[in-house]
Design brief:
single chain
Length: 154
């Protein structure tokens, strides 16, 4: 996950375009990552999804990676911290990856912990679920309830 995070941080627009013009450059890393994700724990899964979204990894060579990330993230959602929940939702919405089981798990884990979310986590979560067009009325109600008294933080 550190490798993906570093790539996500250092890839400037021109570099990102060059990397993605030839997906074969990152496809081997994506395959190895998908194979190793089960051993990375919740932080590694969330950080990898976040970095992959920042790198705009989409389509053919990355579908297996996103599928594995979705499965791993849904399975470990209860172990994510607040930032991990928000960042994972943001990553999948940003990458436009359809992952209903993941979003369901993230919503279920987020609702009781929204009081611990920072304003940034709240806004990222609301944006992600809205952008992904996820039907999550309990989450949206809880987000509104938590956010209104904290408007000064946004």
């Amino acid at each position: 996950s550190t490798c993906w995070s570093r790539l996500g941080r250092i890839a400037k627009n021109a570099d990102r375009r060059r990397l993605l013009q030839d997906p074969a450059l990152l496809a081997p890393l994506a395959r190895q990552t998908a194979a190793a994700l089960d051993d990375w724990g919740p932080w590694g899964v969330s950080a990898t999804a976040h970095a992959a979204a920042k790198l705009r990894l989409e389509g053919g060579p990355y579908e297996a990676l996103w599928s594995k990330l979705g499965t791993a993230a849904a399975a470990s959602a209860r172990d994510f911290n607040c930032q991990g929940l928000a960042n994972t939702a943001w990553a999948f919405a940003t990458a436009d990856v359809h992952a209903p089981a993941l979003f369901s798990a993230l919503a279920e884990e987020s609702v009781p912990r929204l009081g611990e979310f920072t304003a940034q986590n709240l806004s990222n979560t609301a944006w992600a679920f809205a952008t992904a067009d996820v039907h999550a009325p309990a989450l949206f109600s809880a987000l509104a309830e938590e956010s209104v008294p904290r408007l000064g933080e946004f």
